[in-house]
Specification:
With 633 residues, the protein is mainly α. Among the domains are: 89 residues, no CATH class; 147 residues, Alpha Horseshoe (Serine Threonine Protein Phosphatase 5, Tetratricopeptide repeat), CATH 1.25.40. The protein is built from 32 helices and no strands.
């Protein structure tokens, strides 16, 4: 590929300077030509672009960027300017991710451009360059021999599992090595390499078993983490082996309460792995333990649930009988679990028997908090066998129970769930009335959750107009939350509320798409993306965006303007704590950033470079995911 100066000379030889700025791009004029002539830039923006082209011809890419940014202020949504910025930034070492983001914005705004394939090729080149930069930095960290478990984990995040595994081989401490291997395996699972993950986890288990008895606590935690990962990888046999080891480690625990807690967790995990006999044996070790009453009941209920799923109703009933009579909550929960699966198997009469047992247990409960929990289980089980009238009666009784609850947060939370259940069973009017009962300052987020879920139910049932109206009230409620000055709503709560709204907008978009209303679907999905843009916490923002892109791909919806805006937001982000703040020093001048790390001692240098590498890898992965989502049209 010719260098940029040659390209500019070829493009502009004999042509007026007023030619479109995207002609700056690398390839032939025939490739650059668009199927539709783009709208001309405002004169001031065009003038700034022309100056940027001259600056690039010097070449002075930083000056070119300044002029292109000046043009962007005048015409912020012009794809041509994104393209020019991408090319200029691509010529500055260390700015590869920024250049990719500009090209991503260009393709999002102009997906049918004739030069789209060439732009994607340039993105690939830049991505590999960035990978190389990151790889060199991580290799230098690895060569120091310091904190190798963190280095191995970082390598796993880049997808370089072979080097991550070879790095873990250098770790001497068995506990740290186990942690690193388990992390690598989790990354392999996320990448779809289940076979590799299983091998890594079994290697991790062998090393964990070598941890000395004096460190039984950390060994138990490691073995449980391995078992959990193996269950995720669907290697249930391997998980059972890990849990046998965890059971032995738990047995060494000297503190009676801690040992009981560890054994209870093992029993729960054994049930998840499908080892129901093993889970019951572990439970039997705890039946008379005074430290584990309520907690054990939950595990036994879950075992009964798993038995019912397999069709072993007699075994499930026998397991329920192990729950102490005083643990009415767990026993009622288990009966409702079994009722659910009896109903699915067509045994409605048998399901009713279990529900009646739960009702009888509930009748003996005095505490309104515990009583409310059981009433929820009962209502769900009744609905599961199509006894909607019975479910509504139980919810009505539950409303009276809630009035007796003293704890304000618990009361509002229960109101939220009543509203959600009422909507789930089609009683939208009562659901909205219940949501309106949530009025206590500091707990309005529960009202938002309820209204958003009511709107989802309406949309899924085809009442899109009703859903949009309910969502409007949810959004008004969010405005009250934002206006609250009591600091009752943490940033995480606010982010969760925004994610709930975005999720509801996605549901409405899908319902609109299913009904054939493509324009309405695109409008709702664009609103969802706008809402997601506002979410500050990545743990809420990420799933919101995943839901948006999944629906976009499924129904081939056009979100080009909003998708371009998402790229630009990353490019303008100056908040160093965010997942991809491309407008911070690390991404603007990588070399300068690394040189600025204090050199007081070797550890300080290492820590600074490790922190930089982590941020680079995180941003690289965010951009990779955005590119992947953008392709799924």
């Amino acid at each position: 590929m010719n260098n940029t100066i040659t390209q500019i000379r070829e493009i502009f030889r004999g042509r007026p300077m007023l030619g479109l700025g995207f002609l700056l791009f690398a390839l032939s004029i025939s490739v650059v030509a668009q199927p539709v002539v783009p709208a001309p830039l405002p004169p001031a923006a065009q003038e700034a672009v022309n100056k940027g082209v001259i600056a690039a011809k010097v070449p002075d890419y930083l000056l070119a960027i300044r002029y292109f940014e000046e043009a962007r202020k005048i015409a912020p949504d012009a794809p041509i300017i994104y393209l020019n910025l991408g090319l200029a930034e691509s010529k500055i070492p260390g700015r590869e991710l920024r250049a990719i983001a500009w090209f991503g914005a260009y393709l999002a705004a102009n997906p049918t451009a004739k030069n789209a394939a060439a732009v994607r090729e340039q993105i690939t080149v830049l991505y590999i360059k960035n990978q190389s930069n990151v790889s060199r930095l991580i290799t230098s960290l690895r060569d120091t021999g310091k904190n190798l478990n963190s280095v191995a984990e970082l390598l796993a995040q880049t997808g370089d599992f072979a080097t991550a595994l070879s790095t873990s081989d250098l770790i001497q401490d068995a506990g740290l090595k186990t942690r690193a291997l388990t992390f690598i395996a989790t990354a392999q699972i996320e990448a779809g390499d289940l076979a590799g993950a299983k091998m890594t986890l079994m290697a991790s288990l062998k090393i964990a078993d070598l941890v000395p008895d004096k460190a039984y606590d950390s060994r138990w935690w490691a073995q449980m983490a391995i078992a959990k990962a193996l269950i995720t990888a669907a290697d249930f046999e391997g998980a059972r082996r890990a849990l046998i080891s965890a059971l032995k480690s738990a047995g060494i625990e000297k503190d009676d309460s801690q040992r009981a807690s560890k054994l209870d967790r093992v029993a729960f995990a054994q049930a998840r792995s499908g080892d129901l006999d093993g889970a019951l044996k572990t439970v039997n070790l705890l039946l008379e333990n005074p430290y584990i009453k309520g907690q054990l009941g939950i595990s036994i209920a879950y075992i009964a649930y798993e038995q019912a799923k397999t069709g072993d109703m007699k075994g499930a009933q026998k397991t329920i009988d192990l729950i102490k009579d005083e643990d009415k909550d767990s026993k009622a929960r288990a009966n409702c679990y079994v009722a659910e699966y009896k109903g699915k198997k067509g045994d409605v009469a048998g399901a009713r028997e279990n529900i009646l047992k739960a009702i009888e247990l509930m009748s003996r409960v005095q505490d309104p908090n515990e009583k409310a929990n059981i009433q929820f289980y009962i209502a769900s089980a009744q609905a599961g066998i199509s006894d909607v009238a019975g479910a509504f009666k139980t919810l009505s009784d539950l409303q009276m129970t809630v009035d007796l609850v003293k704890d304000v947060e618990k009361k509002n939370s229960l109101q939220k769930w009543i509203a959600i259940y009422q909507a789930k069973y089609g009683n939208y009017a009562d659901a909205q009335k219940t949501a309106d009962r949530i009025k206590d300052a500091g707990f309005l987020v529960y009202k938002l959750y309820a209204l958003a879920d009511i709107a989802k139910e309406q949309a899924e049932k085809g009442d899109i107009a009703g859903a949009e109206k309910t969502l409007f009230f949810a959004q008004k409620n969010f405005e009250l939350i934002q206006a609250d000055t009591s600091k009752a709503y943490t940033p995480d709560l606010i982010a969760s509320a925004q994610a709930w709204v975005a999720s509801t907008q996605v549901t409405i978009a899908e319902a609109s798409a299913k009904s054939g209303d493509t324009i309405g679907a695109q409008r709702s999905l664009a609103e969802a993306l706008r809402t997601a843009d506002l979410i500050q916490h990545d743990n809420w923002k990420r799933p919101a965006l995943e839901g948006i892109f999944a629906i976009r791909a499924r129904y081939n919806l056009d979100l080009r303007e909003r998708l371009a805006a998402e790229w630009v937001k990353k490019l303008d982000d100056r908040v160093t704590g965010n997942d991809c703040p491309l407008n911070t020093a690390l991404f603007l001048d990588l070399s300068g950033y690394l040189k600025a790390i204090p050199t007081t001692d070797a550890q300080t240098i290492f820590d600074g470079e490790l922190s930089a590498a982590k941020k680079l890898v995180q941003a690289q992965n965010v951009i990779h995911k955005m590119l992947k989502q953008q392709v799924q049209r």
